[in-house]
Design a protein that fits this description.
Low-confidence stretches: 12-28
Strand content: under 5%
Helix content: over 70%
Order of helices and strands: HHHHHH
Shape: globular
Number of strands: 0
Radius of gyration: 20 Å
Number of helices: 6
Mean pLDDT: 83
Amino acid sequence: MDHKIHQVRRQAADLHAGHKMSEASGSHDRHAGHSVAMFRDKFWLSFALTIPVIFWSTDVQHWLGYRAPSFPGSNLIAPILGTVVFIYGGLVFIRGAWSELADHKPGMMTLISLAITVAFGTSLAATFGLFEIEVWWELASLITIMILGHWLEMRATSRHCRTCKRCGG
């Protein structure tokens, strides 16, 4: 029994050694200024806005064989709500990418930012008739899923740190 307890403590210490190493390397804390509640709220609002973007997507309508209600301005639902999701939910990833690039350490935030920026630019260009492809629904879905992942990661990390004596959390 004692051996198992020591093994669990050693594994926890190894996890914390990684935290200390990243702090010692001088990189910014990628969660600085973020909270679990902030990402929870961002997820639920982005999710709520993503549903109508998906519903009014011509691709999704074609695949599922339905027609969304049409009314004056209904063609602007996806561009407007997609832009709100991009700004509200996506800016946290863009800021994270700037931080990663400033540290000369591109990572996941840079990759996500590149994807959402290209999807936003493509969708915006399509809205103005420059492309025939519209990916507003993909943009909103991607951002919402990435926010969900970040929220779950932060929630798991905060739970770990609250129960760990070594973290001091």
